[in-house]
Structures
1.
Amino acid sequence: MRALVIFDGDCGLCNGFVAWLITHDPQRRFLIAGSAGEAGRAALDAAGLGPEIAASTIVVWDGREALLRTDALARIARGLPWPWRAAAAMRVVPRPLRDAAYDQVARRRPRRPAEDPACGVPRRDLRELWLSRLVTVETIDDLAEAPAPRL
């Protein structure tokens, strides 16, 4: 089973990252869910996290473990092909340092609407791919019951 990336769907930076992710994930290892949608809220609940967490951080949940901030980014990198996989080496930096850098970016990111074309709304040619990666509440149930993926 695949891992789920839960993101702030109202954030242009987050939407831009997700658009980048789905175009660089040819093995389709990652599904996506906006944190404000029904599936995103269900996933956060199933992961034991409050809905407010995804307003300031990306979450990767594999049905067993929820990873936040740079741990989530390292998990994503590990699941991508080369050269992107090399970014998982960020884990050699102590978590407090890398998460402090992550938090600085999160605090300073412009809160531009996700509909702003400069901020990562899926291009028309990505719309079908984007929609194919969106989870449903049923997918959340399947993810919670499946064995943890090896990324």
2.
Amino acid sequence: MFIAMNRFKVVKDATADFEAVWLGRDSHLGEMDGFVEFHLLRGPEHDDHVLYASHTIWRSRADFEAWTRSEQFRKAHGRVPSTKPLYLGHPQFEGFEAIQTVGGAAAPREAAEAV
């Protein structure tokens, strides 16, 4: 398993716009071999920004790298530029190879989504 993460320092008054960009886009991830799941995470608030992370799980690093070279990747990232900056600096990429995975007794997905 390979986990690809990007961390974004989103300007405080741009959080709604940032979330709208992500929630409104067609990611094309589901079209890719090896794609497992995606999460957009909202983290702690700081003086000048709110930390967000995109978290994508892949079957392997090779599957992730194939995504970065794909037409689906280009389509998913070909957004119209915003007229106002949404985040401070560039996103910070972090990639992780899974060393250990411990599963648990998860509640049915419908029950988890209702919370």
3.
Amino acid sequence: MDSLVIEGTIVQKLDPQEGVSARGQWKKQDFIIETNDQYPKKVCVCCWNDKIDDLAQYNIHDSIRVGINIESREYNKRWYTDIKAWKIEPLTQKTGTGSSSNASEGSTANSGSDDVLGISFSDEDEELPF
């Protein structure tokens, strides 16, 4: 499967959570990102353990690019889906793409990726999520 990427603006950071499981201590923090689409979508993404430190570098209204994994699991005959961040980086505009208002749109459209509701499936990142 190609890398999953979502680009947008941080609109909210939820409070961090901590706990202890059979595997040891864990930390989790969710944040809400709003996509840069014609019809923007808000998506809740979670950071686990050391990725919380990566998220701490960014503030509300910062534009970011997030490498994600999507996973669903069943519990008590109900399904739950998590969108987990494995890479967070600033959304930088590529040079030579035209006006600044079209820069993020142009970089996604010209990257050769299939873009689905602000989540792009691309081969740009060769880094593995683990």
